[in-house]
Amino acid sequence: MAAADSAPAPSSSSPECPAAPSMPTDPDFLSCVLQPPTPSSSSRPDADYAALRRLLLRRKPPSALQHRMEWRCNGKGYVAYRNFLLRRLDGGSAHSTPSNSGRWAHSPGPALSEADSWSSIRDLRTNSGLSRTVSISSKQSDTERHVRFAEPAYSFVGMHCIFDSCKTSVTILKFGRASSDLLAYGAADGSLTVCQVSEPPSVLQKLIGHSKNITDFDFSSNNQYIASCSLDKTVRVWEISKGTCIRVVYGVSSQLCICFHPVNNNLLLVGNANKEINAINFSTGRGISKLNFDDAVTALDVGHTGQLIFAGDAQGYIYTVSVNSHTGSLSRTHKNKSSKSKSPITTIQYRTFSLVARCPVLISCAQDGNLSFFSIATDAKGYLTLICSLKLASRVQTIRASFCPLLSLEKGEFIVTGSEDANVYFYDLARPKNSCVNKLQGHGSPVIGVAWNHGENLLASSDSDGTVIVWKRAKTN
User: What are the start and end residues of every segment in region (Disordered) (predicted)?
Assistant: First the structure.
């Protein structure tokens, strides 16, 4: 600044002014060169004019090269790319830094006339040479597009890994309990594959024994065992480290859903097509008790205290069942209708707490596309109250959904679900309109299963072609 003020002014009596450098690099020096001639009575240039020139030069938008460098520094995430595009359109109104990458950027005014959409392309090759293209997009309503708010969104940087060894539909997949890198998935050919998704991703075990479609499975609390059920009318218990089946429990009908009791891991709860839930002793394989229902039990989950079971049937009803953690005895307490249609329940998922409901909550997903969100009255033996519902496209496949717990703790009530259009969708149930906030594109066939790992930095999705994609979430502060 001092050099700029002390630079000699061109004299009005001189025949010509000194030539300016051809490629000036110092903005202060350039501001002096661009100053107009001064009055003869003054020996110094106009200080205000010089300051204005300096201000305008410093406020020039940075080059596109700098924008692209910033995009690369932010992990090439789709939020960084969107901010790069917005800055090019708005002249620098959006900001993308490592501290807010992965979050909605704040913009004071409208920038795009259509829904925000951009793509982040990334090729991954597995051991089999599979190459796929990832496209990640987000949508906002017309009103929200005019005023963007600082809301954390599920942003992804692409695929973490792909498993494509299965040649039939992958019907169910889950991460291990309190685990970030143990993943298992069951397929329509009866196989159950256990994988490790940490670097380098690998298949640990392939459990062969079921002869038909695996409908459900669950990890024990220590991740040493898996209990699976199938349309072949059997329940099998597997020891993961050895890759062997240590117990088979035969039934009289298709076994449709299964879970370990969260408090007493020696207790297995199994729903079947014979309209009943069976409580089975894990150690002996013998039945302890059973409870009859009005139709086939297609989905179930257990509350964190182990005192309540929530089960969905093939007619769209949701039942609340009391269970004794010590004896395994079952008793039905409530029957709730999830929707007006009579469609099988494909997903029942319990969650301990919700900021929206201020109590434990439950989501149910039906095959006709109805998503229902309930509050649970624990003091009334698990009575369910419908808070909101969402109607999605009707499905032919048995497509599942899941809570997004970490995001829901900040704002809204978010869920993720597969779709028959080969996309993975994120919905905010707290928004009555335009509830879709994000989607992932990468599958080539209907997406059936979705599952989060313990830290929610990885999301796994499976499709009807047998491909499992593990998506890597962008880091947020």
Answer: 1-47
Query: What's the N-to-C CA distance of the chain in angstroms?
Result: 38
pLDDT tens for each residue of 149-168: 334 456 788 899 999 989 89
> Per-residue DSSP letters for 116-137?
-----------TT------EEE
Residue listed under structure tokens 């906002």: 140
Question: CA dist 22 to 25, 30, 33, 50, 290, Å?
Answer: 10, 11, 11, 20, 89
pLDDT reading at 42 higher than 50: no
CA dihedral in degrees (92, 94, 97, 99; nearest 10)? 150
Sign of CA dihedral 153, 157, 158, 161: negative
Q: How far apart are CA 68 and CA 199, in angstroms?
A: 28
DSSP conformation class of 183: E
- Other C-beta atoms closer than 10 Å to the C-beta of 424 total 23
Assess contact for 460 and 173: CB atoms under 8 A.
yes
Closest CA to 206 of 240, 176, 175: 240
Contact 230, 224 (CB under 8 A): no
- Please give the helix or strand (H or E) that residue 4 lies within, else none: helix 2-6
Length of the chain: 477
Look up the pTM and report it.
0.68
Cα distance between residue 374 and residue 320, in whole Å:
12
